[in-house]
Amino acid sequence: MSEGDSVGESIHGKPSVVAAFFTRIGQGWYIVTYALGIYHLNLFIAFLSPKVDPSLLDEDEGPSLPTKQNEEFRPFIRRLPEFKFWHSATKGIVIAMICTFFDAFNVPVFWPILVMYFIMLFCITMKRQIKHMIKYRYLPFTHGKRTYKGKDDTGKTFAS
């Protein structure tokens, strides 16, 4: 085998610039990735939550989401609007990428523990959020919602 034939080495026996770059980014950065994942989970929960939490309101204290068939329809207003959700998520990604340029954030950790903890945290948080959505009967997505098509003979709007 001649000099420079091994993968990642230049002609002079030193690692090439490309190999050094991929070795550098091939390190951990698990803490940065974990923090970004937790931040995105927090944003997602705020995106799914209503602006006014029905569990904190009493029936006497103003508007609430309808819980019966004959109650008035109130639109779902998010706690975190969609544009702010995407804007904050993009800012978080940019900040996480900037953090990878500094070795102080490359803390050696056992990554499977972080992955298992994140999966467990995600499942528990989403289970609580879905139970809240079912209890107060709000659906933050347009799929599966009732659509109103027109009026009947008496002038009242009816649903399909």
UniProtKB/TrEMBL annotation:
One of its GO terms (cellular component) is Golgi membrane. It is found in: Membrane. It is a multi-pass membrane protein. Its main location: membrane. The chain crosses the membrane at residues 28-48, 109-126. Keywords: Membrane, Transmembrane, Transmembrane helix. It holds the Pfam family Rer1. One of its GO terms (biological process) is retrograde vesicle-mediated transport, Golgi to endoplasmic reticulum. Involved in the retrieval of endoplasmic reticulum membrane proteins from the early Golgi compartment. Belongs to the RER1 family. This is Protein RER1. It comes from Seriola lalandi dorsalis.
